[in-house]
């Protein structure tokens, strides 16, 4: 199907946010639209993976007002009135303004507060609010209504296979799990003694454990503390997004915290064991292509589809704060998930898997 309509999607957040707009992009492609992306420069690698046929505009934040103005003006010249439609999936002022200027008709999510959104309501052709009790994937699909597109199919989050990675192909021949203890910020990270206890428990099952993470200072601190065991392979700081997708694709499951790596595993229909802290789970839980559960009215444990989620049983869980002081510090709730409890469910699943294989 080809309709020659061009859409620019603006998603100026992190890797996971970009991945979770893929169902929207896939539906638009299916309907014949030509879809391009405007993304944060740091996420351009995953943008190319989920949209290899698209034009991708990276936006950067530089030091110095003049340099930033030149960069924004140059980018705006490239996209000004080049599209039939634009969709901003964030409320960021600059994203919304670029959406308005880039297309004949613009759609954006907006803030509930009047002072933040009054001008957007005036200038946008259509706008909508986030429903914080619905998954972000479903929120991202709301612009389809304004394009006259009905969703009459199951919503799936899928990733294409990546080409063989010679460097890590040795792992593809083994039975291994991904253990991902790292997150962008410490408030979503499992405490050192707890994560190491969980690694040690899993290692006793005689399965290979591939530990992954990024290149931040926090990642490096975590890397230095990982137990040195014969079946634990520490790849923190050694893989790109594409490398990770390859490793995840050939693994048998994911164990870790809620981050883009968890969403990648879920998109590959892998078994996921995830530890959640202050994050709003209704918005950000791993998606299940099998059982598309919407509500999470539970205390400390929940299973749906291929996903098993653990979190603390305290009144403030899911507060959506950035640490207990809301200043990117540690979260007390992340210290209350017992590694023995996580291991109990992992072991049960693993032994069942072994029985199936033999």
Key terms for this structure?
358 residues; alpha/beta; Rossmann fold; 2 domains; 7-stranded mixed β-sheet; 6-stranded parallel β-sheet; 36% helix; globular
Question: Could you characterize what this model shows?
Answer:
The chain has 358 residues and is of the alpha/beta class. It has two domains: 6-146, Rossmann fold; 166-357, Rossmann fold (3-Layer(aba) Sandwich), CATH 3.40.50. The protein is 36% helix and 18% strand. The protein contains 15 helices and 13 strands. The strands form two sheets. A seven-stranded mixed sheet has the order 9-8-7-10-11-13-12, sandwiched between helices. Strand 4, helix 5 and strand 5 (103-109) form a beta-alpha-beta unit. The longest helix is centred in the last third of the chain and has 19 residues, at 339-357. The chain is globular and about 60 Å long. The model has no long low-confidence stretch (mean pLDDT 91).
Integer average pLDDT: 91
CATH homologous superfamily identity of the largest domain: Glycogen Phosphorylase B
The CATH topology of the largest domain is given as Rossmann fold
N- to C-terminal separation?
Answer: 46 Å
Count of alpha and pi helical runs: 15
Portion in beta strands:
15-25%
Radius of gyration: 21 Å
* Helix residue percentage: 25-40%
**Spans with pLDDT under 50 lasting ≥5 residues?**
none
